Amino acid sequence: MTSEVLIQHPETSPRPGERSAGTPPRRGSPPKGLTLVEVLVALAGFGVFAAGMAGLVIGLVNANANSKDRDTAVYLALDRLETIRNTSYPNIIPANFPTEGYGTITFTLGNPPVPYSYPDFQRSVSIQDNVPMTGLKRVVVTVSSRRGVRVTQEIQVGQCASRQTPKGSER
Fold first, then answer.
1. Cβ distance 102 to 124 under 8 Å?
2. Under a CB-based contact definition with an 8 Å cutoff, are residues 97 and 127 in contact?
């Protein structure tokens, strides 16, 4: 009795779990992998999701920049109002508080002094005498940024009467 040995060539023989060419697929076994249509639908879904996320990120970045500009504008307006509050009443005139254009607002803070610049902001001061009544000045400070943020702060300042001690009395 002779036994025949079947030798298969490694390049043409199927791998374990694969069928050889010409062998029909087994019934009941699902096809392996994804079809081209399934891949394209998945990519389209991912594309819609990615586009939505990109729009959201852009919106958040713009909102953050707008918020930062608004905070800075409020700080610059309140700083100018504080300077005006510390100015004597007769010296609160428009000539002493000229408009500061873009790139001209600077501060020196700290010890040692550190210069800070606000190149994207401009600041203006409006002073009205005897508004809302005689003896008061209405001061309006407006700060604008290049991105379109505009902040307005106002105060009314009046002349303080000096307190005199009547003659003959001691405090």
1. no
2. yes
